[in-house]
Specification:
By secondary structure, the protein is mostly helical. It has a domain of about 110 residues: 2-Layer Sandwich (Fusion Protein Consisting Of Minor Coat Protein, Glycine Rich Linker, Tola, And A His Tag, Chain: A, Domain 2). Helix content is about 60%, strand content about 10%. The chain has five helices and three strands, in the order H-H-H-E-E-H-H-E. Strands 2-1-3 form a three-stranded antiparallel beta sheet. The longest helix is centred in the middle third of the chain and has 87 residues. The radius of gyration is 70 Å and the shape is rod-shaped. It starts with a helix and ends in a 7-residue tail after the last strand. The model has no long low-confidence stretch (mean pLDDT about 80).
Length: about 260
Amino acid sequence: MAETIRQYSLPLLLALALHALAVLALYSGWNPQQETRIIRPQIVNSTLLIMEPKAKPRPQAAPKATPTPDPAVERRQAEARAQAQAKAQADARAQEKARADAHAKAQADAKARAEEMARVQEQRAQEQAARQQKLDALADASFLEAMQDEASELADQTQTADSDAVAQSYRVGIYQTVVANWSRPPSARNGMQAKLRVELVPTGDVVAVSVLESSGNSAFDRSAEAAVRKARRFEVPKEPDLFEKHFRRFTLLFRPEDLLR
């Protein structure tokens, strides 16, 4: 109710003032016939004011008191920081040492592998040299063994030492000629040998050659036969008896020394 009175108090006062002026004019002898006055109404601007209660200020919080640092707490915190820093430094040193140890181990392993490889290569070289030396010795003995085999066969066929020696010398020449004409096939392997039957005429010309005992490799057998045929003619004894007995038809053990190298 009080709020409503406050809202209409100003217009009510203005209305009372206008009525008071009108009553005063009548009592003062104002004649509207004598004097005509135009009274223009005045525009009254009114504003409605709404009064709101002021908000009460909030009580300000009392400033917090700054805590006094505890020396014991600060000392423990400083010790903890120092321990953490020392641990970090120790970890860094340990990592650096681990990297250095790993690098040193890698270098040592590489050196050990290089030394082992050098040792293996040296051992292989020594084995190869020994094997080559053995092969050289076998190569030197292979021809003598072949001649010994041929000599044993001739010893069974002849009765005298003189004829054996003469026949052996001619057979050595024939064998050397065959080996000189031989072309080694790619499939030839160490230890291969073939026994051939060779037939000649008194002039030493080859009339026939065949394989009595195969080496097991047809290419090797054919190469041995071809070497005999390539020679065409061999040096043979002029004595008819010696020729007929040892060179008309004879066996040739073909075992070239090239296969032992």
